[in-house]
Amino acid sequence: MKSKALVLALFVLAAAGTAHAQSGGMKGMDMKMDKTEAKGSVHKGTGVVTKVEKDKVTIKHEPVQSMNWPAMTMAFTVKDKALMDKLAKDKKVDFEFKQEGRDYVVTSVK
Ligand SMILES: [Cu+2]
Asked: 31 or 53: whose pLDDT is higher?
């Protein structure tokens, strides 16, 4: 009986340790995956802002080779309110964006 209890205790400890290690490992993996995805899908553009709306900005941008885009005027989604401060009509901007479904979301503005 004593040894059975000991085995059980060790098993519980081992299981707890494994669970902990797993959640830590998963977290690390998620972060790595996010980074890889962001790195692969962020595109850079240059253009002039033609219109600023609540959560959208229209940019007359130069060709974006990574998207196979010619120069055009189009709307981008802006989710980060802080980026809105950097966007103003007629301002020339260097920006980065990523595709999210059917939206193109601005991720940084210079
Ligand atoms: Cu475009």
From this structure: 53
* CA 82 to ligand 1 centroid distance, Å: 22
Ligand 1 centroid to residue 44 C-alpha, Å:
11
What's the CA dihedral at 49, 51, 52, 56 to 10 degrees?
-90
Spacing, Cα 59 to ligand 1 middle (Å): 8
Ligand 1 centroid to Cα of residue 61, in Å, is: 7
pLDDT at residue number 72:
98
At 52, the pLDDT band (50, 70, 90 cuts) reads very high
Distance CA 101, CA 58 (A): 18
Query: What's the 72 CA to ligand 1 centre distance in angstroms?
Result: 5
Kindly indicate the confidence band of residue 41, based on its pLDDT and cuts at 50, 70 and 90.
confident
